[in-house]
């Protein structure tokens, strides 16, 4: 059995993959989950090539049964869960008069519903880890737009505000048991998800890096059980408040 184990969703690229890489460096056995099997397997193979302990579970995380399958596969392989990274997310921009119901539901299901389901399905394993070392952790990828709602990205902003709010609620509910939660709220990060901003003139080199995000999570791993960080806001120099 691994001494530490983590689930990372949305792990086939970008922030999720970088956090997974960092966790592997820290000795965590990993279950990676994402929607596209080929892309996920390529990401997992890349980590395994570095000698990391990794399994992947391709799953449409908007579906309840898929969430249950990821957690069941993780428990069967590793038997423990010390860290849950709810990183899977989708953002689809549109002015309010043109919001499509299908795309509205997709963002609600992936960005909010799956996060709630992962907490529900993982809380037993997290409680077991917390009873052992009081250092169980859940990291939820939100967004700066969850703190400051953005036009055109209104639905995405609303879902990420929900992530921040749910994180706060989970700390009030679980932190005294040794399960702490942190919401990550970055501005533009250099990932495929921000290609629209690059096309609009924001240079990739002017964006936050995925390594910046992963290093913040590494810091969270080092904190004492007495220290709770409910959220981390990542801004770019010159960004309007």
From TrEMBL:
Q: Can you say what this protein is called?
A: NAD(P)-dependent dehydrogenase (Short-subunit alcohol dehydrogenase family)
Report if keyword NADP is assigned. yes
Task: Give the CDD domains listed for this entry.
Answer: SDR_c (cd05233)
Give the record's keywords alphabetically: NADP, Oxidoreductase
Q: Which GO terms describe its cellular component?
A: cytosol
Which Gene3D superfamilies does the record associate with it? Answer: NAD(P)-binding Rossmann-like Domain
| Family of the protein in this entry | Belongs to the short-chain dehydrogenases/reductases (SDR) family.
Please tell me the species this chain comes from.
Conexibacter arvalis
Domain of life, per UniProt, equals Bacteria
Mention one GO molecular function. Answer: oxidoreductase activity
């Amino acid at each position: 059995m691994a001494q530490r184990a983590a689930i990372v969703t949305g792990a086939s690229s970008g922030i999720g993959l970088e956090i997974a890489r960092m966790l592997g460096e820290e000795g965590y056995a990993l279950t990676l989950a994402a929607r596209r099997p080929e892309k996920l397997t390529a990401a997992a193979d890349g980590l395994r090539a570095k000698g990391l302990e990794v399994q992947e579970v391709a799953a449409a995380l908007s579906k309840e049964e898929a969430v249950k399958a990821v957690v069941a596969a993780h428990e069967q392989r590793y038997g423990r869960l010390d860290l849950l990274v709810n990183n899977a997310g989708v953002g689809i921009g549109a002015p309010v008069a043109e919001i499509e119901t299908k795309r509205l539901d997709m963002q609600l299901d992936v960005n909010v519903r799956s996060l709630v389901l992962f907490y529900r399905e993982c809380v037993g394993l997290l409680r077991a880890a917390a009873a052992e070392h009081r250092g169980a952790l859940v990291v939820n990828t939100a967004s700066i737009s969850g703190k400051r709602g953005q036009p055109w990205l209104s639905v995405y902003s609303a879902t990420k505000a929900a992530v921040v709010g749910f994180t706060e609620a989970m700390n009030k509910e679980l932190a005294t048991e040794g399960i702490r939660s942190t919401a990550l709220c970055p501005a533009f990060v250099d990932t495929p998800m921000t290609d629209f901003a690059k096309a609009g003139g924001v240079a990739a080199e002017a964006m936050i890096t995925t390594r910046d995000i992963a290093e913040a999570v590494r810091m969270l791993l080092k904190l004492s059980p007495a220290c709770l960080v409910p959220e981390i806001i990542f801004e770019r120099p010159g960004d309007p408040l």
